[in-house]
Amino acid sequence: MHRYYFKSSVMIVRIWSSWLVRHTTEKFDFASEGVTKLHLDVSDDGLMGFIPQFDVIVLSSGHWFAKHSVYILNNEIVGGQLWWPDRSQPMKVNNVDAFGISTETILSALVTHPNYTGLTVLHSFSPDHYEGGAWNTGGSCTGKVKPLAAGELVENGFTNVMHKKQVMGFERALKKATKRSKLRLMDIIEVFGYRHDAHPGPYRSRDPNKITKRGPDGKPPPQDCLHWCMPGAVDTWNEIVLEIIRREFEGNRDFSP
């Protein structure tokens, strides 16, 4: 999507790959054309074409598994998200399972790639802070303008189970890694659970008290309690990535901030 060139001979590339595995909208078996089909055991062809060019790859995914899609494994439809026409048969794979499988698939493809010997960093599942509903049912983080204090963190069941599946996929891929490839987990899920104030949602209202009010149509105002906008969160992720790279490529020394 974007390439940034620096005079120091460094290039940073941002590539969009929503699920990190192969996806298509073509008809497949009893899944009609139009709906997204995810081949959970096949890495994203578009992404993999770039792999040999890089020294470091940072992967981040997960929340797109909440979207309407069909899951295919071993060339067989095994489940879906917001899609399952055969109510007489249980799904074999739900969206949480699909996330774990996809994580193992893409990481395994990288650590066994014959022409990639670089460092792969997996960014853990990003916590959201919707209260009183989900992103599309009136959930809000309005009024959250300070980080949580110690002891105030509220556990999110869905976030925790997605993180668990992701770590399982990481650990399975790690067992396949060769000495020529490196794989690291950048686990931010707990510490950034405290940053419910760092999303765009609380700052979209000019009301100084940030009170959520429903509009004339009775619907709540749009909220974004998933992405990050405030200083601190993403800046810290960048610092962590830089430290991982330093340790891997400069002799694993202890670097001061």
UniProtKB/TrEMBL annotation:
<dbReference type="InterPro" id="IPR029962">
    <property type="entry name" value="TBL"/>
</dbReference>
<feature type="region of interest" description="Disordered">
    <location>
        <begin position="200"/>
        <end position="222"/>
    </location>
</feature>
<dbReference type="Pfam" id="PF13839">
    <property type="entry name" value="PC-Esterase"/>
</dbReference>
<comment type="similarity">
    <text>Belongs to the PC-esterase family. TBL subfamily.</text>
</comment>
<dbReference type="GO" id="GO:0005794">
    <property type="term" value="C:Golgi apparatus"/>
</dbReference>
<dbReference type="InterPro" id="IPR026057">
    <property type="entry name" value="TBL_C"/>
</dbReference>
<feature type="domain" description="Trichome birefringence-like C-terminal">
    <location>
        <begin position="6"/>
        <end position="243"/>
    </location>
</feature>
<protein>
    <submittedName>
        <fullName>Protein YLS7</fullName>
    </submittedName>
</protein>
<feature type="compositionally biased region" description="Basic and acidic residues">
    <location>
        <begin position="200"/>
        <end position="217"/>
    </location>
</feature>
<dbReference type="GO" id="GO:0016413">
    <property type="term" value="F:O-acetyltransferase activity"/>
</dbReference>
